[in-house]
C-alpha cells in the first residue's frame, strides 16, 4: 500500500508539469509573432517625417507629383541678407562635426511646388534643367546624405538660378517655410542671373537671411569674402557643342570680340581698335539677316560674313569678355572652352571660384577705362606665356566650368575646405592640371625618386679667399644638429686652400672641392660628395646666422639649377658674377608656384669685416645689375614667377616669455 501510494502521488504530478511547460512556450512564441506584426504595422502606417527619409532623385519625385504647398499672404519673410556674415558668425560648423573622411554632408530638401493663395506658382519656369542637373549631381556625390540629422549643409529644391523667373516675395516666403531654415543658417542657394531691370543688382534680390549664396555675378560690394562663393554663369553651349581641344600657339586673329548687345560706348571703342589694327582684330555681332531662334544664337556676323559660334573663338589668341547688364557673362565659359585667353573688362567683378583659382594664370584683367590700351597691353605678353595661359584656360573650363556638376561640386569642395582647412586642397591641386606641363623646367616630382643615402643636410660653402670669415662660418654651421657633411667649394684657381691642420675641428666630415673655373654657379652643382636630400647653400661671409636659424629650414634644388635652368640664365650669372640667388628663386617659384618662406625674423645680413675689395655685393654696380637680371630672367621664363608674400615662419615659443631651455630654437636672431 505504501509503495502503491507513493507511485500514485508522483504519477499524477508529472502530467500537469508537462502541460505548463508547453503552455509557456506557446505563449512566448505567440507574443513574439504578435509584437512583430504590431511593429510592422506601426512602421507602415505611423506618420513619418518627410525630411528624414526622403531621398532626392527626379525619378521618384517628378515636378508634377511633388506636393503642392500654399503660401499664406501672412507667411513670414526672411531678412534681406546680412552683409557682415562670415563662416564664424553665420555658419554653425558644429553641425558638421568630425568624420574620418573630412567631408561635409549635404541634404537636399524634397521637391515641392509652392504657390500663393490663388494657386499661382512662385516661379514661371519651375525646376529648370540646369538646376535639376545640379541637384542630381550633388545627390550622386559623396557629399550627399538623405539623413537630415547628419547634414552639415542644406540645399533647397527651390530653383533660384535665374531671378528673372522668380516672384521675389513669394520665393522668400517659401524659403522661410523650410523645416530647417533657422534664419538661413547652414543653407546654400545657387543663383547665376541676379538682379533685374533697371539696376541689375549683382546679388540675388530674394531675402535670404544668413544663407550662403553661390552667385554668378558678384561685385566687390555684394560679395561676402570667405562666406559666399562666386560661381560662373553656365553656358548651355557647353553641353550642346563639342569643341575639341586645340594646341596652344598663334591663332588667325589676335583679339576677338563676340558678345552681342555690348554697350554702344564699348562698341565704339572696339571699332576704333579694329580700325587701328586691321585684320588682327575681329569684331563680331549678332546676325541681323537671320531669323531669331536657337540657330541664330550659334552664329555671329561681321559685315555680312557669318561665323559659327563658339567655334570661331578657337581662331583667336585673346577673346574679349565685357560686362553687360550683369557682371557675370556666359561668354566667359565659351571663351575658356575654346582655349582662348579671356580679356576681362568688368570692374569690381569677382571672378568665378577666385577664392581658389589663380586667374592670372589663365586670363588678363584690364580696367574698363583702359579698353583703348588693350591691344598694346596684350602685345607686351611673351608668346610662351600666352601659350601657357591658353592651356590653363581650357583646363579651367574642363575642371570647373564644363557642366552643372562641375560647378556644383567645386562649390561644395570650397566650402568643405573652409570647414576642414587641415585637409583642404592645395594651391597646386586647384590650379595645376593633373599632368603638369612646364615648358621651361621639369617638376622635381617627376625626377627619379631616390631615397637619400644619408639623413640630415649637406652644407655647401662657396668661398674665394676669405679664410677667416670662412672658418667662422664653418664653426657656426657645425653646431647645427642636422648637419651631415660640410662641403667647401674653393673657387680660387690662383691660390691653394689652407693646410689641413689649420681648418676648424668639427664633428662631421669636411671636404674641400677645388673648381676649374671661378663661377658663381659652382655653388649649385650636384657634387658626388652630396649624399643627402637637403642641401644648404651659403656664402663664406654669412657669419651672422645662428645654428638654430640654420636648423629651422632648408631646401634642395641643385640638380634643376645645374641641368634644367631655362635659356642662358646660368651662363649670364657666371659671366656677370651676380644674381645666382635670384636665379634660384626664379627656378623654385616657377616649379612650385609658391612664394618663398621667410624663415626667422632677421632683417639684415651684413659682414662687418668685409670691404669693397672682398665682397662682390659691395661694388657700386652690383645692385644695378641685380635689377637688370630680374628683367632678363623674366624674359627667359616668359613670365614673372616670383610672388609677393607676407608670411614669416618663426619657431614655436619664439616670442613667448619662457625659459630658454624650454625652447627648441632659443638662439634666433632678432629684427
TrEMBL record:
The way it spans or sits in the membrane comes to: Single-pass type II membrane protein
Keyword Transmembrane attached: yes
List the coiled-coil residues: 256-283
- SUPFAM superfamilies per the record? Nucleotide-diphospho-sugar transferases
Where are the bilayer-spanning segments? Answer: 24-46
Q: Where in the cell is it found?
A: Endoplasmic reticulum membrane
Matches recorded under PANTHER family: ACETYLGLUCOSAMINYLTRANSFERASE, EXOSTOSIN GLYCOSYLTRANSFERASE 2
Name of the protein described by the UniProt record: Exostosin glycosyltransferase 2
Amino acid at each position: 500500500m505504501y509503495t502503491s501510494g507513493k507511485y500514485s502521488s508522483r504519477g499524477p504530478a508529472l502530467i500537469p508539469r508537462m502541460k505548463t511547460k508547453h503552455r509557456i512556450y506557446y505563449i512566448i512564441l505567440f507574443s513574439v509573432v504578435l509584437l512583430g506584426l504590431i511593429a510592422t504595422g506601426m512602421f507602415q502606417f505611423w506618420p513619418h517625417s518627410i525630411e528624414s527619409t526622403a531621398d532626392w532623385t527626379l525619378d521618384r519625385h517628378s515636378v508634377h507629383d511633388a506636393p503642392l504647398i500654399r503660401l499664406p499672404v501672412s507667411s513670414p519673410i526672411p531678412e534681406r541678407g546680412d552683409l557682415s556674415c562670415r563662416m564664424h558668425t553665420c555658419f554653425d560648423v558644429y553641425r558638421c562635426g568630425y568624420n574620418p573622411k573630412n567631408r561635409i554632408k549635404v541634404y537636399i530638401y524634397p521637391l515641392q511646388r509652392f504657390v500663393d493663395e490663388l494657386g499661382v506658382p512662385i516661379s514661371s519656369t519651375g525646376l529648370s534643367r540646369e538646376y535639376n542637373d545640379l541637384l542630381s549631381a550633388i545627390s550622386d556625390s559623396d557629399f550627399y546624405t538623405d539623413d537630415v540629422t547628419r547634414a552639415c549643409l542644406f540645399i533647397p529644391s527651390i530653383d533660384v538660378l535665374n531671378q528673372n523667373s522668380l516672384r521675389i516675395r513669394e520665393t522668400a516666403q517659401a524659403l522661410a517655410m523650410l523645416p530647417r531654415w533657422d534664419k538661413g543658417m547652414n543653407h546654400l542657394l545657387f543663383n547665376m542671373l541676379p538682379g533685374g531691370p533697371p539696376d541689375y543688382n549683382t546679388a540675388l534680390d530674394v531675402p535670404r537671411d544668413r544663407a550662403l549664396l553661390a552667385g554668378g555675378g558678384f561685385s566687390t560690394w555684394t560679395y561676402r569674402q570667405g562666406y559666399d562663393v562666386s560661381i560662373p554663369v553656365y553656358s548651355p553651349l557647353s553641353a550642346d557643342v563639342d569643341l575639341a581641344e586645340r594646341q596652344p600657339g598663334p591663332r588667325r586673329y589676335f583679339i576677338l570680340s563676340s558678345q552681342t548687345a555690348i554697350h554702344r560706348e564699348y562698341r565704339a571703342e572696339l571699332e576704333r581698335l579694329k580700325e587701328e589694327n586691321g585684320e588682327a582684330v575681329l569684331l563680331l555681332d549678332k546676325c541681323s539677316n537671320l531669323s531669331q531662334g536657337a540657330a541664330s544664337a550659334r552664329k555671329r556676323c561681321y559685315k555680312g560674313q557669318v561665323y559659327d559660334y563658339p567655334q570661331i573663338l578657337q581662331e583667336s589668341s585673346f577673346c574679349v569678355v565685357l560686362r553687360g547688364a550683369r557682371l557675370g557673362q556666359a561668354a566667359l565659359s565659351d571663351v575658356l572652352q575654346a582655349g582662348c585667353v579671356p580679356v576681362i573688362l568688368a570692374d569690381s567683378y569677382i571672378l568665378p571660384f577666385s577664392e581658389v583659382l589663380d586667374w592670372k594664370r589663365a586670363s588678363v584683367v584690364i580696367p574698363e577705362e583702359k579698353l583703348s590700351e588693350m591691344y598694346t597691353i596684350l602685345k607686351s605678353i611673351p608668346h610662351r606665356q600666352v601659350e601657357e595661359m591658353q592651356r590653363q584656360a581650357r583646363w579651367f573650363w574642363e575642371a570647373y566650368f564644363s557642366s552643372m556638376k562641375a560647378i556644383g561640386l567645386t562649390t561644395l569642395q570650397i566650402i568643405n575646405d573652409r570647414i576642414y582647412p587641415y585637409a583642404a586642397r592645395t594651391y597646386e591641386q586647384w590650379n595645376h592640371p593633373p599632368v603638369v606641363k612646364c615648358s621651361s623646367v621639369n617638376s622635381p616630382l617627376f625626377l627619379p625618386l631616390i631615397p637619400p643615402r644619408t639623413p640630415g643636410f649637406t652644407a655647401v660653402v662657396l668661398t674665394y679667399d676669405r679664410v677667416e670669415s670662412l672658418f667662422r662660418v664653418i664653426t657656426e654651421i657645425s653646431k647645427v644638429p642636422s648637419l651631415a657633411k660640410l662641403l667647401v667649394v674653393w673657387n680660387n684657381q690662383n691660390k691653394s686652400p689652407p693646410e689641413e691642420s689649420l681648418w676648424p675641428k668639427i664633428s662631421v666630415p669636411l671636404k674641400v672641392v677645388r673648381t676649374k673655373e671661378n663661377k658663381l654657379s659652382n655653388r649649385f652643382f650636384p657634387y658626388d660628395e652630396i649624399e643627402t636630400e637637403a642641401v644648404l647653400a651659403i656664402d663664406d661671409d654669412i657669419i651672422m646666422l645662428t645654428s638654430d636659424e640654420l636648423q629651422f629650414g632648408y631646401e634642395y634644388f641643385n640638380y634643376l639649377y645645374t641641368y634644367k635652368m631655362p635659356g642662358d640664365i646660368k651662363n649670364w650669372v657666371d659671366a656677370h658674377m651676380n644674381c645666382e640667388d635670384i636665379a634660384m628663386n626664379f627656378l623654385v617659384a616657377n616649379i612650385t608656384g609658391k612664394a618663398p618662406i621667410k624663415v626667422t625674423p632677421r632683417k639684415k645680413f651684413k659682414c662687418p669685416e668685409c670691404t669693397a675689395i672682398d665682397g662682390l655685393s659691395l661694388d657700386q654696380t652690383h645692385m644695378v645689375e641685380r635689377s637688370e637680371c630680374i628683367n632678363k630672367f623674366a624674359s627667359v621664363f616668359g613670365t614673372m614667377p616670383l610672388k609677393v608674400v607676407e608670411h614669416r615662419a618663426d619657431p614655436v615659443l619664439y616670442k613667448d616669455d619662457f625659459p630658454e631651455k624650454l625652447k627648441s630654437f632659443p638662439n634666433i636672431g632678432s629684427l
